[in-house]
Design brief:
- This protein is α+β, with helices and mostly antiparallel strands.
- It has one domain.
- The protein has 7 helices and 7 strands.
- Strand 2 and strand 3 (83-90) form a beta hairpin.
Length: 202
């Protein structure tokens, strides 16, 4: 999935020498070790006939999630310390490793990523209003959503002269989805806004 917002944003920036996408590691991208411009060039290369997917022998696979473009790698990679996988995915602004981990919470704790969709308060409310035990209500929830991120880097470059400014954010992302039961989506989001001379997003 090519990030269209990144394409339009890059078109507004002054011409710069772009890094060679072939030199960027997917592991480094997943682990939030590259910059937003580097990631954008890397992700945009996916759509090219001789881009990184073809050069690295990635196999495009059908995804049960319309918001993800998934690939099977020719061999496993290791991320999040010791987790191995040969499946990765791209969303509009993120690269994700698809891990065979049913509960994202242990990985998230190690990465200091809170769950913005924590179901515990809702379970407690349902238990209280229904007069049932917490464990009983929790057992009925077949899927417990996890969605969280932690900002790794947040950089603003004000506009200078005729050049536009930028606001770039790199964020550790951990989630799960009903489209991928028993899996944890672990990766990094790379976001960029173009700023006018007053510092407002265009």
């Amino acid at each position: 999935m090519v990030p269209l917002l990144a394409l339009s944003a890059l078109a507004l920036l002054p011409l710069q020498v772009a890094p060679d996408p072939a030199r960027i590691s997917e592991v480094d991208a997943i682990e939030c070790r590259i910059s937003v411009p580097d990631y954008n060039g890397f992700a945009l290369s996916l759509g090219e006939a001789d881009g990184i997917a073809q050069a690295r022998h990635w196999k495009k696979i059908d995804s049960a999630n319309p918001f993800l473009s998934e690939y099977e790698l020719p061999g496993p990679i290791t991320v999040a310390g010791s987790y191995r996988t040969s499946r990765i995915a791209f969303s509009a602004n993120a690269i994700l490793a698809i891990l065979d981990v049913a509960d994202p919470a242990p990985i998230a704790r190690g990465e200091n990523v809170p769950n913005a969709m924590d179901p515990d308060p809702m379970i407690e409310d349902l238990a209280r209003t229904s007069g049932r035990r917490y464990a009983e209500v929790a057992a009925e929830m077949k899927f417990r959503k996890f969605l969280g991120e932690r900002i790794v880097k947040d950089v603003t470059e004000p506009a200078k002269g005729e050049e536009f400014g930028t606001h770039m954010v790199v964020a550790r992302s951990i989630s799960n989805a009903t489209s991928h039961p028993g899996k944890t989506l672990y990766g990094c989001a790379y976001r960029m806004e173009i700023l006018d001379k007053d510092g407002k997003p265009l």
